[in-house]
Amino acid sequence: MSATTDLQPGRSGPRLSAAVRRGALPWLILAVVYALCVIASADFLTWHTIRLQLIQAAFIGLVAIGETLAILIGHIDLSIPWTITLTGIFATNLYAAHPHEWVAFGAAIGIGVAVGLVNMLGVYVLRVNSLIWTLSINLMLQGLTLIYTNAAAPTTVVPPAAKFLALGMVGEIPMAAVLWAVCAVIVIGALRFTPFGRAVYAIGSNELVALVSGIRLGRVYAAVFITSGVMAALVGLLLSGYSSQAYLGMGDDYLLPPVAAVVIGGSRLAGGEGGYGGSIAGAMTVILLEAMLITLNVSQGEREIVFGAILLALAFLFLGRSRR
């Protein structure tokens, strides 16, 4: 009865306006944060500064693709930081030994797929809480990376394609932003217009109902976590190109900011509600907020406190809204 009632014309208007407000809120937050940045420093009005922020936001935004998918099915992926680091170090070392770019990118994709499959095994097959499992995998990847670097130190030889994707320009637009835009169109299209997207939202809303309706949960879980792993691995290569080297801890800044971007973007942490369009605004908001705090000489520790408080506040905001 309720499903039929929701489709009645009298109710479609309020539901549509609520959806519009939910979709507009992340962009409103972005506009407010950007205005505060401009007040803090007029440099934020220059294209040079905007371009730098776009590149940084692209890295967060690419990682947030996998994080958005994971959160939409009601889970989370915290194995991203050391997937980034391991990929950056191993792929560049492999390229230094075998200078063919396809070798480096193939290794990156292989690492991403492997991490994704391991996460799917733990979360879907073994039914371990995704926060605990993926954080444990992150620690194991850290240990694996440390063992590897004891035998082979990180190199400064980086594939030219990685440098171009991270620092290249298409006219006046950063190549990283172009790559991000292409991936964003693919992800948004997949979520809105394909059976995969419908399955993601169905699982996030009610996994048991999704199973009974015939959705193959294992395939969706595998696709989600493999996507997350591959995007983290890609960012590992891009960060190597951006810094012209791979180094230990290069992914440490990518533990919670992608989650913050997804939450700012309006996705419900319990799953089933949200989308990647909001995560785009969330990624830019996170980068601008961090840049503003740096401009104001806020220390690293204080910035972490601010981000943690914002994440908690938004989580409670969206939790309260979903309950209503």
Q: If you had to describe this structure to a student in words, what would you say it looks like?
A:
It is a single chain. 77% of the residues lie in helices and 1% in strands. The protein has 14 helices and 2 strands. A two-stranded antiparallel ribbon has the order 1-2. The chain has a single domain, classed as ABC transporter involved in vitamin B12 uptake, BtuC. It is mainly alpha-helical and 324 residues long. Mean pLDDT is 89; it is low at 1-12 and 320-324. The chain has helices at residues 2-6, 9-40, 47-72, 80-97, 101-125, 130-151, 160-167, 175-193, 195-205, 207-212, 217-243, 257-264, 276-295, 300-323, and strands at 169-170, 173-174. It is found in: Cell membrane. One of its GO terms (cellular component) is plasma membrane. InterPro entries: ABC_transp_permease. One of its GO terms (molecular function) is transmembrane transporter activity.
Annotate the secondary structure layout:
Blueprint: H1 2-6, H2 9-40, H3 47-72, H4 80-97, H5 101-125, H6 130-151, H7 160-167, E1 169-170, E2 173-174, H8 175-193, H9 195-205, H10 207-212, H11 217-243, H12 257-264, H13 276-295, H14 300-323
Antiparallel strand pairs: 1-2
Helix pairs in contact: 2-13, 3-8, 3-11, 3-12, 3-13, 4-5, 4-6, 4-11, 5-6, 5-11, 7-11, 8-9, 12-13, 12-14
